[in-house]
Amino acid sequence: MEQPSIIFRTVCPDRPGLVSQLTSWISDYGGNIKHSDHHTDQEAGLFLSRIEWDRKNLLINKSEIYEQFKKIAIDINGKFNINYSDEIPNVGIFVSKQNHCLIDLLWRVRNGELKMNVPLIISNHPDLENIARDFNAKFFFIDTSNCSKLSVEKQILSLLKDFDVELVVLAKYMQILSDSFLDNFSSIINIHHSFLPAFKGAQPYHRAWKRGVKLIGATAHYVTQDLDEGPIIEQCTVNVSHRDEVDDLIRKGRDIERIALARAVRLHLNHQIFVYDSKTAVFD
Amino acid sequence: MEQPSIIFRTVCPDRPGLVSQLTSWISDYGGNIKHSDHHTDQEAGLFLSRIEWDRKNLLINKSEIYEQFKKIAIDINGKFNINYSDEIPNVGIFVSKQNHCLIDLLWRVRNGELKMNVPLIISNHPDLENIARDFNAKFFFIDTSNCSKLSVEKQILSLLKDFDVELVVLAKYMQILSDSFLDNFSSIINIHHSFLPAFKGAQPYHRAWKRGVKLIGATAHYVTQDLDEGPIIEQCTVNVSHRDEVDDLIRKGRDIERIALARAVRLHLNHQIFVYDSKTAVFD
Amino acid sequence: MEQPSIIFRTVCPDRPGLVSQLTSWISDYGGNIKHSDHHTDQEAGLFLSRIEWDRKNLLINKSEIYEQFKKIAIDINGKFNINYSDEIPNVGIFVSKQNHCLIDLLWRVRNGELKMNVPLIISNHPDLENIARDFNAKFFFIDTSNCSKLSVEKQILSLLKDFDVELVVLAKYMQILSDSFLDNFSSIINIHHSFLPAFKGAQPYHRAWKRGVKLIGATAHYVTQDLDEGPIIEQCTVNVSHRDEVDDLIRKGRDIERIALARAVRLHLNHQIFVYDSKTAVFD
Amino acid sequence: MEQPSIIFRTVCPDRPGLVSQLTSWISDYGGNIKHSDHHTDQEAGLFLSRIEWDRKNLLINKSEIYEQFKKIAIDINGKFNINYSDEIPNVGIFVSKQNHCLIDLLWRVRNGELKMNVPLIISNHPDLENIARDFNAKFFFIDTSNCSKLSVEKQILSLLKDFDVELVVLAKYMQILSDSFLDNFSSIINIHHSFLPAFKGAQPYHRAWKRGVKLIGATAHYVTQDLDEGPIIEQCTVNVSHRDEVDDLIRKGRDIERIALARAVRLHLNHQIFVYDSKTAVFD
Prior knowledge:
The structure is a homotetramer. By secondary structure, chain A is an alpha/beta fold. The first copy, chain A, folds into three domains: 6-84, 2-Layer Sandwich (Alpha-Beta Plaits); 88-186, 3-Layer(aba) Sandwich (Rossmann fold); 188-284, Rossmann fold. The first copy, chain A, is built from eight helices and 13 strands. Chain A has helices spanning 18-28, 62-76, 100-110, 129-134, 149-162, 179-184, 204-211, 246-269, and strands at residues 6-13, 32-41, 46-54, 79-84, 90-95, 117-123, 138-141, 167-170, 188-192, 215-222, 232-239, 273-276, 279-282. A seven-stranded mixed beta sheet of chain A has the order 7-6-5-8-9-10-11, with helices on both faces. In chain A, helix 4 (129-134) links the parallel strand 6 (117-123) and strand 7. The two termini of chain A are 26 Å apart. In chain A, 45% of the residues are buried. Chains in contact: A-B, A-C, A-D, B-C, B-D, C-D. The A-B interface holds A 39, 41-43, 195-199, 211-215, 217, 231-235, 237, 241-243, 245, 274, 277-282 and B 39, 41-43, 195-199, 211-215, 217, 231-235, 237, 241-243, 245, 274, 277-282. Strand 2 of chain B pairs antiparallel with strand 2 of chain C.
């Protein structure tokens, strides 16, 4: 039986000896490093490290691993995360009416590309319930027209708790989450249908068409309280021309939206992303 | 001896019969259409047409051709341009200190990719004089530090007139041309080192780096009085990652800047661009 | 009520006056040309023309239109096709075990991106029957292990006839169609998982990985009797690195396979493709 | 004064403890690791490591560093290279008649993008002598028409020795080097004007045009005795259409040829490439 990988990420002030310090105890225990990637951000004076290894015949349990890394992290004054490749997180997907990103994500889950469970799908419209059913996810239609945003978000937060959700993916969810929501739940990936920071906000394809751009883009990013200003994970573009109407931009955009979003979610699930200084470092 | 092509472009209100009306007189005279491309902008209600043909054995001179097209243009209420493939325009290139776009353009002229003469290069710095000499262009260093913008631009306009310049290319000219300059000379292509409309204005690479984008861009556009808001001709992008410092963005950007600019200039020289509604239609 | 577009395509020997001849009768009748695109292949001496127009208030029926174009086609010695935008063809999709191209095509049909009916799906494996059911298509599993190729293909041809199929799409159908099949039915689009002509034949991703390429590709093409040698419609590529195993190439490849195939099918359905000299001209 | 970086690369059989073993002695001496990148090729059972570090205040000289790494390399049964960022190699460029790759490389050297000296340029045609002069390189025209290949290559090898050349770049050198030449000098990067392995050998653009591909490519690779079969370093592609003649493919190809070649040379100069199993691993 294959042992799961242990993925250790840390960000700490740069100084000599870090790689050795982070890796020597693993080899002392007989652990086997599969991937090891380090980056120094000279300007920020920070050292970023991701080490993926397995225990093989090593008799060390999760809490001992945690203690070992915690000790090092304290010593190097670093923030750290430890993840295991066999821990499959629960992910909630939020949608409105458009189905392309939702179907695409669920198809990739089914094909084994995305290692996550999708126990629930939340929407402000009832349209996509069938898709949820096809993929055995619960669908919650939360009508926002007759409720205060506060009460809607309270319901959502309660669902996320009930379903033990670790990550939310906004797969064309055309609502803005309030600051107070984000204070309570902040691990959220959004797909924005423009090449950010161009065309922040509403109707980016209409505005791109009006501006006469020759390429359109899609941006997957973590959500923060500044709309469309969160750390960018992935961006894709596609050519357009004067022959393309707004509807063609929307059609072409769908293809890059689902690819950018799927790549970002995969990178997140594989623990390949570092977030700091409102930016990401993606170790791929 | 090969006859030059005649390139006719028109923009007019859309209505039935336009293609036939524009082409039938050419065939009546025995002219041979080599390329014929038409586009209807449904929203604007406009018809755009580009017809490239040659006279073969046809005994019709330039003024007769002009009169024929003018008659049709009046009838269809259109604006029109007539160009000949053997008319090689004089192009002035404006630069500051960076040489990559200048060398690239001059190399393409020498290789026959860009059908233009470059009789003069104007700069607010003396650095690139050698390059001008290598390619037999006059180099005018106009010191902007001790002169008013008005007087500098007056000198420039006078040079453009002296050298019979039809098109100006801003090949990394880090100065803003005044509205009054543009009133006097308006056929200008600029290369901006961002994916417009993102990062308009100064230091786009620094701002792109700070924002943490995953792609950077370059945009070639016609210059208008609204800074970086002119009609876009061509856009290119290239991937960047957290490993790239600002200097890497600048280095990678140079490659897409020169390609985007060269393509835009070539499209202009081949009369493949229509400008209307602050946008371009590029017939390629 | 909107009138359907009439799409006329012709290929004929090049000579003066063709554009006018093809378009003048349309305008004489008051028809309105929406798109008109012409290309001269100098080397082959051929003229290609695609004209899309609508009848508006014009009282001319399909057979009269046919007669008009036929008369012209005879005169110009051309082959021609006439299609109407409201004629939705029946398309048969052939699959084996992989589902990504099939789901993608069916999703695009449902979303209105691809104007076609999919009455039947044929497979040499039973695996994808569920998907067919989800999208209301009949699924025919034809076991090839106990039958001769001849008898299998006879069954298939009979089904294509029964369902009045005009186009077949091989959406990862891992079987080779015989010459005699292609003699009986030849309107077939295939997706090959390489950048043709590289890696023709079996296991292109394995061979690409072994060769150490830095980009992998997907090619949508019409099927001919020479395996993987048919006219290319669309090609896409994606970056790979030494970090990618064969499984990663397969995963990344799925995204470009479905995009290349969907674009090719769309271009075919919109009658934007010309085939001649074992190549395509794609008017987009 | 900034200390030069020390770049250590090794390839060895995979086993636990390698990262620690490679890095711990550096930190023991107070060296500072700037980049550290490791890759395990599971199939080949190999571990690849690149460590870039500087000595800061560390009093250890080059021969001591060599001894330290050699000791480790023997212990881990690995092949290794040690390079210093301030060692600027002499590079010979071979050309025929086309100038675009040559000018591009020399321009990048002058701009500081490529850290190399170009003391000599060798050609089988006299055409590009002027360019060599502009950039202060010696130009050797070696007429191949009246000499045996053996004698020509002997002259070349002698020149490479005289000028202490470490790397040869074939910048559109339209000659094939013999096996015996490659036995004597093997550090050679070539640019091939196709997307290898498609269109190996002569006239790839003509064949690509005839095949009707929708993308053309350029491939930079190390030269081996199997023509166009050497380890691939970098590949680029660009869209083409039926409107492009062979000359257009050649023109468009020039842009991707020079970019692919320049990237490959830069990666080589920065010691970011590993070659094994007829493939490269590029650590960028």
